[in-house]
Amino acid sequence: MKKFYPLLLITLLTMPLSGCTSLTANQSADAHTVQAASSDEDSHSKDTEPDYAAVFPQDSVNRIDITLSGESWSALQTEMEDLFGQQGTGDRSADNAGAMPGRQAPGGQPPAGDRQPPEGLQPEDQQAPGDFQPGDRPGGNMGRMNFGDTSYVSSTVTFNGETWNSVGFRYSGNSTLQTSWRNGTQKISFRLDFDEFEDQDPSTEDQRFYGFKQLSFKSNAMDSSYLREKVTGDIFRESGVIAPQTAFYEVYVDYGEGPQYFGLYTVVEIVDDTLIETQFSDDGGNVYKPEGSGAAFVDGTFNEDTFEKQTNQKEADWSDIEAVFAALNSDLRTSDPAAWRAGLESVFDVDTFIRWLAVNTTLQNWDTYGVMAHNYYLYTDPSDGLVTWIPWDNNMALSASMGPGDRGGGGDRGGGGGRGRNVLDLDMSSVSDQWPLIRYLMDDPAYQAKYDQYLKETIEGAFQPEKLAATYREYNDLIAPYVEKETKEATQLNSIESFNQSLDELIQHAQSRYDAVRAYLAGR
């Protein structure tokens, strides 16, 4: 399991005692790498080890201030209009009495086609919003939904009394990016890159933020609890699945009219930045962010565009991914299962995938593999050559029922967003061979037995209802003051009532899933 278990042991041994036991149990933030930054040189230098304690606190909410020039802000808004039309033109039909009224306008404009970024912005590779085609969806909702992140503009970041200049700022996301824009909220997911503009400003060469090059700020769209991204990551890591670290931030943005509160965000560690450095033996391998029909691993569907490289982009070599395709879809699966397993395990970290599958199916997720062919990373560690599965984007996890309450256009109760989708059954009976990483592994008795064992470990460990209930309450209490001060111009909620109700829904969901797993295992 790579470095996880030694790291977890070190973390538990070095963790400070606290009255909030369920919060400290989730503080697996690579404590062995933590260094206290004592000067600007430490906090800005590439040579500083990632300071997880400063950037990802588990029992407090950090504040970060971002300043953009009026010109940069205007260019950013223009690009968003080119991508998605005028802001606030979405149909907020889910609004009701007591809601936080957004800037609603009747009707709505369809996403624009291919357009170039406005002049003066840092270019980024973009996927045209019109590229989401039903024909890309064999066996389910598997189409590519990357509507295109915006280009970077320069910003100034202030945090903990220190300043970082010429920091790249861009909006990010898929369907939530478009939905947030059309709903008229200022609270949109974004990413910071601390040395994006080093060519224009040499003083920021290899600039870091307490050891981190990039950070992803998630708006918690389609999640009225604002907890799913945070808690799901905690559950994965505590269960032995390598996953990014997370923390809560209150974000203030000044684009020429003074600092404005943009709401409570969840900050997520970037996989191709510090995660591979701290969680794997060798960080020089290929990081992929797959998306689209090929990302389901169906035989014959591999294409390089589906497996977008985040590292080693100049090396046109996808042989590691092609090897997984070949081993997974080999005829040995039916003619010689033992040889098939050996071949697959020589190129793919099967154990990590099955562990992820058990945890993911326990907690339920509407927007990942088995339902949608995206929201995961792959990393090939050169030390063993194995391709490893890493979960990503968990705002639609921990939910099973549908209803109003979020600002995402009528998603699940509590923000699951699973309209028209079915989460995975515990017995995987509804999973077709269009999801071969699940179907083929679960058809193998040895892998099925391992899956059942990991389900048992999940409910006996990270997914105990009483433990989760305590964690939900503690995090809810922690973030409530920051959620309550969100304004109608910058929120992902239709109403504060939906946030208040979400806590009980999460607690009920945990008990329901615990009971469901126990019943499934009892019938095995």
* Average residue-wise pLDDT: 83
Domain module count: 2
Count of helix runs:
16
Query: How many extended strands?
Result: 11
The radius of gyration over CA amounts to 22 Å
Shape: globular
Describe the protein in words:
There is one protein chain. The chain has 524 residues and is α+β, with helices and mostly antiparallel strands. It has two domains: 4-91 and 150-279, no CATH class; 287-460, no CATH class. It is built from 16 helices and eleven strands. The chain has helices spanning 4-14, 21-24, 40-44, 52-55, 70-84, 175-183, 228-238, 271-279, 319-328, 332-335, 337-345, 350-363, 436-442, 445-460, 465-484, 496-522; strands spanning 62-67, 153-159, 162-171, 190-193, 214-218, 246-254, 260-269, 287-290, 307-309, 376-380, 387-391. It has a seven-stranded mixed barrel with strand order 1-2-3-4-5-7-6, surrounded by four helices. Strands 9-8-10-11 form a four-stranded antiparallel sheet, sandwiched between helices. The longest helix has 27 residues, at 496-522. It is globular.
